[in-house]
Amino acid sequence: MKESQPSAILLKDYKVPPFLIDKTELTFDLDETNTVVTSHLHMRRNPACGKSTQPLVLDGGEDIKLIGVAMDGYTLPSEEYRLVDDKLIITATADEFVLTCETLIDPQNNTRLEGLYRSSSMFCTQCEAEGFRHITYYLDRPDVMSVFTTTIIADETRYPVMLSNGNETERGKTDEGKTFVVWHDPFPKPAYLFALVAGDLAVKNDVFTTQSKRDIKLQIFTERHNIDKVNYAMEALKRSMRWDEETYGREYDLDIFMIVAVDDFNMGAMENKGLNIFNSSCLLASPETTTDDAFLRVESVVAHEYFHNWSGNRVTCRDWFQLSLKEGFTVFRDQSFSSDMHSETVKRVEDVSFLKTAQFAEDAGPMAHPVRPSSYIEISNFYTLTVYEKGAEIVRMIHTLLGEEAFRKGSDLYFERHDGQAVTCDDFVAAMQDASGVDLTLFKRWYSQAGTPVVTVTDEYDEQTKTYRLTVKQHTPATPAQPTKLSLHIPIRVGLISEQGDALTADFHNERSDDFVLHLKDNEQTFEFTSVHSKPIPSLLRSFSAPVKLHYEYTTEQLLLLLSCDSDGFNRWSAAQQLAVNELSQLIQQAENGDAFSIDSNLVAGFKALLEDETLDPAMVALILKLPSQAYLSELAEVIDPQAIKGARHFLKVTIANALAAQFADVYKKHVVMGKYQANAQDIAHRSLKNTALSYWAESADQRAQTAVAEQFKQADNMTDQFAALSIAVKTNHKSAQNMLTAFYEQWKAEPLVVNKWLMLSASQESDDALGAVKALMEHPSFDLKNPNKVRSVLGGFGQNTSGFHHKDGSGYQFLADQIIVLNKRNPQLASRLCTPLTRWKKLKPELSVQMKQQLERILAEDLSKDVYEVVSKSLA
Ligand code: B3K
Ligand code: ZN
């Protein structure tokens, strides 16, 4: 462990920057190991600070070497500046001056993948949140916005493509015969949006004509062998541009929009102004190599990064505590886009299912934090599901409270009022409130309070007076640093249904309807509905109107009725989930007690009706049939017993499979998609149901299913079907599973993104020596510790490997800890993300919990990056 541990940065300590940088002129003389960066920063004291004599303190990194510094052309002797803890400090400055810095950096050996680094044969950058300081000394904070001009110098034979933000304004030869290219971005921006790319890249060109009839040049760059896989992304980009004009009135501003795909990238993609950089896994797509899910992900990430041009770039964050200002809002925008492009209900179910599994777990664990955190040690650790997904739910609730029209007025006011500024979540809410007249004062607590509220509903019906009352209570459990909680403003959408399954109308607040939004503001409130002609079944929290855990004692009959009759598609899915959770809870209990498994037949009956109803949307049927995941059941459990959960799920799946084998076989055959592969909603829906049916059928005793799996694997003309068959073979221990895995690798070894899927599936394969198998994968020629996608595939797959990861001797946890310790030095951001499974140690059953804790303690004893230190120390606190 280090002598002194890193300290926390606090929101309450925010101060405006003492200096501003009006113009930033950068020159990069590119070289693999010795890149020279020269900056001319046109600076002045910030008038908002009044008359001040504060020294100039610029952010830097331990990996950059300062060659020289000059002020207004005067080279500073070493006694006129200091380098302290990666900061460059200059005490005496004029009120206005040009600061010149020359730094030396080593992109080739930059394994952190932030700042300027190499990926394959190219140079690329990642500057959010604090990567720019690894390039040169700067005021690396989002409220310092500057106009950037960037000159790139390189050997044109190796780096014919040289890109940065904005428009190319000049190109020529240097005296040494190298090529230089100048880029100018007229929009002031924080350094985190800076980008540079250089390489021997292929390009796909297109044009988008905006609503005001400006032609925007669109370019997607990839390594040469991948350029045939960008058509889908290009079309998705054009759909996003049109949608943002139509839905938010937002038009693109520069004359050119570029996207570059790189293989080595810490996350999905980055919204650099005019030059988005993408993890190739979120950009490249072809039917043969890409599954339906991955196609949809490409579309949503392309949209997300594009939408940031307004929600993030034109209006940016004042400080990193406000991260959800851009991320929550932009996730909400990309979710709405995908919903408009495909099916609203399917999209909502997928998003909510993810939120309830992963974000709820985060919000109940040691890293729980508000959507607007009030403290952090390393900001990279706060690109979380809470900031992104719960942040999006907050924006969605504002949308529910205001309604479509007023919400649009609010977003228009927000963009107009704050264009070119760095602002706060409060500013966002203020614009929404000012434009709509809706009081959001109480609602704002959602931003500052961590934890998932638990909402408990009871009801009573008075036959005499035809009155129906819903009593709703809220309670938010304590989270680290927030022992007591306040009540929140929770919008609860409710529908009323008769015992026959029809919509039931009622009077509520001068409105007669069968669907209402209740405003829960106190710890307990009773809502009274009148003129209700029969006893209702409440359909609660329709379309998941708030990110809460809902409790209401539904009977099995009521859940079955909601499953078949609710007009809210989301709640039909929700009812099925609840039925399955009820069954599984009993089974888990039986497993833990060592009792024989037994289930009642209701769920099977419900599924049977679903499989036989040909009028339903196949995508919804597939979603309803998917059993609650291991991860979701772990989130729900008080104490997690991974083996018991796995056993219960397996038993339930096999039982349903055997009871309905004929129906699954039938549905499997009926939903085969004929004709050329297309990633459209309809075909995706059929493939999804077909493969879900196959996953059940293959668990049944019907041997024909085994043949169907093998046939589909061999004959599939698209990755969705081929990989579905392979996964089913692996999960059901198909007799040819091993051969299929080998054949799959041989077929696709030249396609890294497909190999990643193979690595993940192989690492998740349960066996007596799962750990040995995973160790072998890390020695496999296709594995590369430098590539985050590969690391995540193997370690992510292993995390799902119950017998391997949760081995009772603790060897699985030890192995993960070993990898974290190695990566802590090479790539702290990646290492920190890999800690997530270990942060759940307190909830595991005691014999596993103690082993996991030991590994966290072992990690904490190392010399740690801020990233890993923060997660591990908070987990042990
Ligand atoms: N804004 C980036 C995330 C940057 C993460 C830095 N550790 C991608 C996105 O959310 O669009
Ligand atoms: Zn984003």
TrEMBL record:
Similarity remark: Belongs to the peptidase M1 family.
Name under which the protein is recorded: Aminopeptidase N
Peptidase M1 membrane alanine aminopeptidase domain mapped to chain residues: 232-446
Record Pfam families: DUF3458, DUF3458_C, Peptidase_M1, Peptidase_M1_N
PANTHER family in alphabetical order: PUROMYCIN-SENSITIVE AMINOPEPTIDASE
GO biological process terms, semicolon-separated: proteolysis
UniProt keyword annotations, A-Z: Aminopeptidase, Hydrolase, Metal-binding, Metalloprotease, Protease, Zinc
Enzyme Commission number(s): 3.4.11.2
Function summary: Aminopeptidase N is involved in the degradation of intracellular peptides generated by protein breakdown during normal growth as well as in response to nutrient starvation.
Record field: catalytic activity: Release of an N-terminal amino acid, Xaa-|-Yaa- from a peptide, amide or arylamide. Xaa is preferably Ala, but may be most amino acids including Pro (slow action). When a terminal hydrophobic residue is followed by a prolyl residue, the two may be released as an intact Xaa-Pro dipeptide
Signal peptide start and end residues: none
Cofactor(s) essential for the protein: Zn(2+)
Peptidase M1 alanyl aminopeptidase C-terminal domain mapped to chain residues: 557-877
Gene for this chain: pepN
Aminopeptidase N-like N-terminal domain location: 110-193
GO molecular function terms listed in the Swiss-Prot or TrEMBL record: alanyl aminopeptidase activity; metallopeptidase activity; zinc ion binding
Highest rank taxon of the organism: Bacteria
Keyword Protease annotated: yes
Peptidase M1 alanyl aminopeptidase Ig-like fold domain location: 451-553
CDD domains the record matches: M1_APN
